[in-house]
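Appendix B.2, paired examples.
Example (i):
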Amino acid sequence: MFDALSNRLSGVFDRLRRRGSLSEADVNEALREVRVALLEADVALPVVRDLTEKVRARAVGQEVLKSVTPGQQVVKIVNDALVEALGGEGAVPLAIEAPPPVPILLVGLQGSGKTTTAGKLALRLREKSRKKVLLASLDVQRPAAQLQLAQLAERAGVASLPIIAGQGPLAIAERAMETGRREGFDIVILDTAGRLSIDTALMEEVKSIRAATTPAETLLVVDAMTGQDAVNTARAFNEAVAVSGIVLSRMDGDARGGAALSMRAITGAPIKLVGVGEKLDALEDFHPERVAGRILGMGDIVGLVERAAETIDRDEAERLAAKMAKGKFDLEDYAAQLRQITRMGSLSGILGMLPGVNKVKAQLAEANLDTKILKRQAAIIGSMTMGERRHPDIIKASRKRRIAAGSGTSVPEVNKLLKQFEDITVMMKRAQKLGEKGLMRHGLSALMPPGGARRPF
């Protein structure tokens, strides 16, 4: 998400930073490029106009043009304007502190990721907020929609409303709320039906359900990859049912990002949550300042640390670190390390949270860094016997052929993994031999194998 926009803006600001002084003409020229970049990213025209005017008003003042670092000042002004457009500082929490059962109504078009979001939200509320959650599908239009939600509920470890054939959406909603009250549920998530496009019947159905259940939250689920269409959908739903918040699904996709920048301005409702993957735990708070930082190539270190804290097993990490320090690191430990990294999500997503990574995206693409590589390496190790993992030096030609066949890979890939592991082992032994003082004196270059680091396959 935002890659194209981020690359365009980085080019504009790099040119500004290189200049010792700026004129009003320089700022206007840069803003014209910013305007084009935002429009190409599918940001709504009124939002583009408002954002660039705000930046121009602040950037042509004397305190900017006469400052020591005018380019940096303009970047700061653009950053502040983006944060403002995205909803201001800090995430907006869900309004669930009300007498139970608290109804949460999910609305949106068919294919927006609404049902999957319902499952993700249920898991999040159960694990992070310690709430007893009931999932209810009101979708009687799409075949097997109710069964799909029941399966997601089972995966999330929450209850789902029993299916009664022939019951309409309004009756299901009322039964869900009654079940919530009778069985002591804290939250009732109501997943409404979608349509391929906005129509009167859909809106009337959603209005009647909203009136009957008076939800604490009416969350519009929008596919971030639909661009300008997402903005039109948000406007229509907001006019019909006054949405209280927005959930952007597929924020990890290859999208232009304009929907995220337009939503707050078009609806007045905050983006509260974003879907960042297919797994049920891939639902995160939306932080405007962090998203603005990523758009401008500043990264999101806080988000990266939070993700690591949530996914990495601390005891396991400490055990691996201790073995590495002693130089006793085998392929079983290497596989455990791969699992830790994979749990954090895609490598491209992790790298996107680091400052300045946009400038080396091409090199990273050439390095073929992808979670699939890690999974393939884990499959290779998984095809080995315990003895082979503990003592990789016993793996010769016949064993390599067996491991390759068992993991669905090739012998050259097995060789590359073994060579990579050998390089890591050599580095650890050198680190142990040099000690802390030696490392400080010689630097990391003293650990590198001859010819430098090798790329993963």
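Example (ii):
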Amino acid sequence: MLYAVAGTVLVASTVVTVMFRHDMGEARARLAAQPTEIFTSSYGDIQYRVTGDGPPVLVVHGITGGIDQAEAIVTQWRNLRPDYRFIYVSRFGYLQSAMPHDATVRMQAAAYRELLDNLGIDRVFVVGNSAGGPSAMWFAIDFPERINGLILISSAVPGPVPGPIPPLVAGHDFIYWAAVKAAPERLLGMLMPKSVIESMSAEQKAFAIEHAFVDSLPISERTDGILFDNDVTNPGVNDVPFERVTTPTLIFQAVDDPREHAGGLELARRIPNSQFIGLTGGHLLTGHATHIRTTNAEFIARHMSR
């Protein structure tokens, strides 16, 4: 009996190890296949990628992200048409971007400006997703002469701060991977209400889990950025002087998440030249990619000559 139990445990652990190594191998291959460059700014290295032609659009990713998550906003989530010159960037502490000493969200915005100077790009539209929202807003505040319009997609919002990602999970690839495999719907519950999850098809759930969680592997290469967002970015959104955002602004926010809905309305109330677009689907705004993409295209066309 004891040998049988030991054999079962050994087989199970071997299967888990093989699955983990397979998924980690795929994650590292995916990152390696994405051509990126490094710009050495006064704040340290900034990893970036520039693709496409058309009006320049700086895409700023959320928590657990990096340059790959920024690119996924266009290619997987399809919230923007592929008709622009995209500048994807890894924020402080993500992938190959440095974490400066005593970093602030406002410093991150200044680093964007240095990167654009290096690329010879005068003005951009800025898309801020989730924890990328605050630095996008600070860019609009500090460098209004460099921005045509601001697009916030499920941005961090003022009000109660969401629960942080536990450092143990954020710092260890196997623990993070095991959590994704063992309790994917529980993780989805961090991003959207139970009612939304229950209304999703199996395909929608699989898509969300794959691109919101699995694609964040290896999490260990994003740990410094996640902890920065936990401790600085998300709490600090309450200190952003929203009234100083004078550029035209689109705000896409979930109406079926009470915290995000209230915070999005507060953003719209305090940002002078803004338009609030409330959508269902929780933090991922599931099911609205076409509407978001069309609205963004109209917004960019309207303001690109500023």
